[in-house]
Amino acid sequence: MVAAAIAREQGFSVLALTVNYGQRHSVELESAKRIAGELADEHIVLELDLRRFGGSALTADVEVPKSGVGVHDGTDGPSPGRPDPIIPVTYVPARNTVLLSLALAWAEAAGASDLFIGVNALDYSGYPDCRPEFIDAFEKLANVATKAGVEGGRIRLHAPLQSMTKANIAREAERLGLDAGLSHSCYDPTPDGRHCGLCDACRLRAKGFAEAGIADPTRYAEAPSQ
């Protein structure tokens, strides 16, 4: 939502792509439709069932960890000699590579040369496809893998939230006049669409609003602990 609003502020028209990949937090699809209704000039919801592959707590019958950020099954998180967190079970294999490839295909077909993605490399749960190295590598790929790139066009991949804390993202949403209550973060929402309050995404979301000093509009089933 914030990335799309930044794109609009920079003068871009927004073509919004949502992928229904079989994620258990399917309530985010409705959230995406509401956000696109506010910010996008066109919105496509694409069906791509990654449950056929599995390999993630978001696409298979695997429990979503709720023991705290960076702590999964007692083994994840930084430790002496291992500064980087182990990639959690909520990682969907190659998800951002798949999603950006689809976005790239639509962009080329539409004659667009700028892609925006809302990944964040600071307050995150250890996903490799949120890192600056990934963003840089995909942009290079886009420029050698497309007709537009080969014929001299320049495809640019923007990650405006890359180096922001969750608190700064919350502040940016407020600055842009966005209704943060339209957005959805939870990996394991309740049947009535409330955020669980215990998964990594909920904890990081609540922490961001708290550190920003901004009222959190999120409906939680349980109050997140920091």
The Rg value, from CA coordinates, equals 17 Å
Strand portion: 5-15%
Helix content: 25-40%
Shape: globular
Largest sheet: 2 strands, parallel
Instruction: Briefly note the CATH topology name.
Output: Rossmann fold
Order of helices and strands: HEHEHEHHEHH
Reported CATH architecture: 3-Layer(aba) Sandwich
Terminal CA distance reads 24 Å
Level-1 CATH class name? Alpha Beta
Unreliable sequence segments: 71-83
Helix segment tally? 7
Reading side by side through the largest sheet, how are the strands ordered? 1-2
Mean residue pLDDT: 87
DSSP summary, beta strand count: 4
Q: Structural class given helices, strands, pairing?
A: mainly alpha
Relevant CATH superfamily: HUPs
Number of domains: 1
Task: Describe this structure as you would to a colleague.
The chain has helices at 2-9, 27-39, 95-110, 132-144, 147-150, 166-175, 200-212; strands at residues 15-20, 42-47, 114-116, 156-158. The protein is mostly helical and 226 residues long. It has a single domain, classed as HUPs (Rossmann fold), CATH 3.40.50. The strands form 2 sheets. Strands 1-2 form a two-stranded parallel sheet. A two-stranded parallel ribbon has the order 3-4. Helix 6 packs across helix 7 (200-212). The chain is globular and about 55 Å long.
Task: Summarize this entry quickly.
By secondary structure, the protein is mostly helical.
Topology, please?
Elements: H1 2-9, E1 15-20, H2 27-39, E2 42-47, H3 95-110, E3 114-116, H4 132-144, H5 147-150, E4 156-158, H6 166-175, H7 200-212
Parallel strand pairs: 1-2, 3-4
Helix pairs in contact: 6-7
